[in-house]
Design goal:
This protein is of the alpha/beta class. It has helices at residues 16-29, 44-53, 80-83, 95-100, 105-117, 130-134, 138-150, 155-160, 179-197, 199-204, 218-222, 240-256, and strands at residues 4-9, 36-41, 59-63, 89-92, 121-126, 162-165, 206-209, 230-233. It has one domain (4-256): TIM Barrel. The protein has an 8-stranded parallel beta sheet. Helix 5 (105-117) packs across helix 7 (138-150) and helix 7 packs across helix 9. The relative contact order is 0.15. Bound molecules: 1,3-dihydroxyacetonephosphate (13P).
């Protein structure tokens, strides 16, 4: 059975002191769950101190971004090689990076490849904008983002990649995606993986949902037929009450199903 993942993307919030406080509060409220992997993605600055602080039975760390070259004259960048011993995961292709930092399809592909080369599992975010959805381009966009991002990997590498479906129009907007919309998109993603890498890989690969996740949506989203293996949480992951409730709700849902 695919292991559930609940990941908190803290984006550009919290300094090291605040991050450490949040981890402390979460640790008090979250138990060790064998079937639920809880992943925290703080700013790059906080990865080193948090790696020493976290209870590794409860939490794993993810970076939010890294550059695809392993080293060199690239002022201001941090490479996947530098993150090797600090993180299990790295978010790649988040829509905010695609929109504000020129993470094009090719850049995302190079980053996915660099992550895998360095033993870090990419959490590959894909999703359509409101305009793209309204123009009926959702499937084309998901297909293009997925195929390009994975194109330098072997079938074996793809098995381990975590894919996150994040409809851009529902990220931090207060607009919620309907269960049927999430179900349809995730089915399409699995169908695409099956076409490219075979049915077995598409059944093994983990697909998360992320956009506007709140504690009350957890059971519904995780019970969808498409098979959703977890959640990538933005805003609510900064609130320890909400994030621990999301983790605990995921745990309850998994136990009941
Ligand atoms: P929100 O949960 O704030 O909508 O953000 C989702 C997200 O971007 C996670 O990566």
């Amino acid at each position: 059975m695919r292991k559930l993942m609940i990941a908190g993307n803290w984006k550009m919030h919290l300094n090291t002191h605040e991050a450490s406080l949040l981890v402390h509060r979460l640790s008090e409220r979250i138990d060790v769950h064998r079937n639920v992997e809880v992943v925290l993605a703080p700013s790059t600055l906080c990865l080193q101190p948090l790696s020493l602080e976290i209870d590794r039975r409860k939490f794993r760390l993810a970076a939010q971004n890294a550059f695809y070259k392993d080293e060199g004259a690239f002022t201001g960048e941090v490479s996947f090689t530098m993150l090797r011993d600090l993180v299990h995961y790295c978010i790649v292709g988040h829509s905010e990076r695609r929109a504000y930092f020129h993470d094009t399809l090719e850049v995302v592909r190079n980053k996915v490849e660099a992550a895998v080369r360095n033993g870090i599992t990419p959490i590959l975010c894909i999703g359509e904008t409101e305009h793209e959805r309204k123009s009926g381009e959702t499937k084309q966009v998901l297909h293009d983002q997925l195929t390009t991002a994975l194109s330098n990997l072997t079938t074996n590498d793809v098995r381990d990649v975590v894919i996150a479906y994040e409809p851009v129009w529902a990220i931090g907007t207060g607009v919620t995606a309907k269960p049927a919309q999430i179900d349809e998109a995730v089915r399409f993603i699995r169908h695409n993986v099956a076409e490219l890498y075979g049915q077995k890989v598409s059944e093994e690969v983990r697909v998360l949902y992320g956009a506007g996740v709140e504690p009350e949506y957890v059971a519904g989203v995780l019970s969808l037929d498409a098979g959703i293996d977890g959640l990538l949480v933005g805003g609510a992951s900064l609130n320890y009450h909400k994030f621990s409730e999301i983790v605990n709700a995921a745990y309850r849902t998994r136990r009941e199903n």
